[in-house]
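S.,

Sequence below, as promised.
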Amino acid sequence: MPTQVSPIATCADFGADQTRKRLVLDNTTLGLRLFSFYLGYGRAIPWRGVTRASILRKVRPNFPENSYLSYAVECEWTQHLLCCGAAIRVPQPWYLKRFYAADHPSVSRRWKTELSVNDKEAALEHHRHRMLAGIPDTVMGKERDAIVLTCEVAMLRRAVSLGRPGMAGRRRARPTLIRERAALLEPAARAKVLANLDRTIETMQSREAQ
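The prediction came back faster than expected:
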């Protein structure tokens, strides 16, 4: 299997929103690649590029889907790609994404407007389970613990993007559990996990207050 899966190009948004999305991955090892992916909140930037055909044939016969309007399946696919090999950063904006006005029914807006509250919560739990289950068994020990905790923080952040910023239900206890388990990590990894957690909680509280 090739060691390089795809280039990661900058994603340039245009239209109603004009920003550029970048993701820098540490390809030193699989564990560090996944850790850096989740430090970037597990966003699906790497799949918007050129992927080796051999990877597309081997990694999964079909693109993932679910019964919640296929919520966040592109993030699950990205994780699969990163488990297959390095994704090399390319600074040029190869991928252009149009953002439409607020009244345009995009897929991500449909997640917010067409899914019920219960379905949103179910979609978040389903997605969290898929992402955690996608961490390979070959990543072990404290390195795995750091990846799992960083993934958990990313899943809290995902709730904000779906319009569920509060600590309701199962999410309520997770920040405390993350802090407790992070105390057992190596100092450098612990600092990064907790910094992401603090930023995420701040964002959640800010959105909840709006």
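The mean pLDDT is 83.

Coffee later?
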